[in-house]
Amino acid sequence: MIDFELSEEQKQLQDVARRFAENEIKPIAAALDNETDPHKTYPKEVIKKGFELGFHSLLIPEKYGGIGATPLDYAILLEELAVADLGTANAFHVCMSISELISKTGTEEQCERWLRPIAEDETGTQLIGFGATEPAGGSEIFCPLPDPKLGTRSHARKEGDDYVVNGRKVYSSNAGVAGLYGCLARTDTTKPNAESCSVFMFPADTPGFSIGTIENKMGTRSSMNGEHIYEDMRLTKDNMLGEEGGGFATLNAIYDSNGMGLGSQAVGVARAAYEMALEYAKEREIWGQAIGKYQAVGNMLVDMKADIEMSRLLVRRVAWQCTNESSEGALLPNLAKVYPAEMARRVTVNAMQIMGGAGYMKDYPVEKYLRDAMVFPIIGGANEVLKYFMSQRL
Ligand SMILES: Cc1cc2nc3c(=O)[nH]c(=O)nc-3n(C[C@H](O)[C@H](O)[C@H](O)COP(=O)(O)OP(=O)(O)OC[C@H]3O[C@@H](n4cnc5c(N)ncnc54)[C@H](O)[C@@H]3O)c2cc1C
Prior knowledge:
This protein has helices at 8-34, 44-52, 71-84, 86-105, 108-120, 193-196, 247-252, 255-283, 295-323, 335-360, 366-373, 383-391, and strands spanning 127-131, 155-159, 162-173, 178-186, 197-203, 209-214, 225-236, 240-241, 285-286, 289-290. It has 394 residues and is α+β, with helices and mostly antiparallel strands.
């Protein structure tokens, strides 16, 4: 039986998230976007208020103090936050996604140690960040080829019971504002990349860890993106998530849901652009009638609406799949990321076209939506690379 109706609890969550987005995020989104210093764009107070509402702990199981919500709740929340500001939504997304990774792959002890302090935090300082992408390339990290020289360059050298990590990550979200960080590093450089990466988690104040450059980006400006630097960072087996050399299997635990989280944010940004363009098309009169009455514009709006609805259905289908784990009829992993990612670019470009010169000016947020939406086919793995892996399963 297929039921498209949200439950009462889901409607309540949507309502809380919508009001938070409207009252807390929207009023400061343009100012943060226009701030030219990337060190001053982080919405600290908004993040703190989101922590008070428990957004950061949505996917942390109740037994560790979290909310223990479903993947569909996660999608609903992220769509609403992204309508107001993608950078802010992304800060919560990364935190929720990596908390899910820990809860799915960590031991009881690790979950207690890492998840409970995050779940109980109301100061907003316990976000999570994760570094996979390196200067050699975010796509290089996923290299499936047998040559051990290719792939992840950050190295966790075994020394007795310890691992000494050296290397550098780039573009990582929540850089400098998280309390807990994770990384993907090679634990054996003689084996192929796919068999020799491991996932580690460690607190922000771990000796040997530092944050480098904070990036100055074209969009998602309220999200802090920057370098993670590891210089003889000493970790132990207790810091490792999953098996040694099984880093990709560990990350696979959130493959579907992380992609869906990105897809739901793409739906949010596209929805914001569509709603603005629709309103404009009803009001703007050319040759004596609203431009929305012209078939060319009306058709564009219908296509945009259909694109958004299809993407949301994909997201919710994968949310269902994440809850009802069954490989039967399972969608290709990341379909709910790659399609909405491209959809958000299409819809925001069309929204600007409908608004003409006004859309190109900073008086309206449509140009921000477009700049923000450009990130979707890049973030969380380039669409071309994700499609390559998807095509191998066809
Ligand atoms: C705002 C933002 C936030 C981010 N947050 C994080 C984060 O929190 N953590 C993190 O680890 N990373 C993060 N990233 C990095 C992101 O995951 C990478 O940018 C992405 O994986 C692409 O890597 P790259 O930029 O090095 O591009 P490259 O790997 O250099 O690829 C460049 C282009 O080459 C093409 N390409 C590459 N390989 C192939 C292939 N095999 N087949 C076909 N085409 C190919 C694609 O078009 C690709 O876009 C973030 C990036 C941005 C912009």
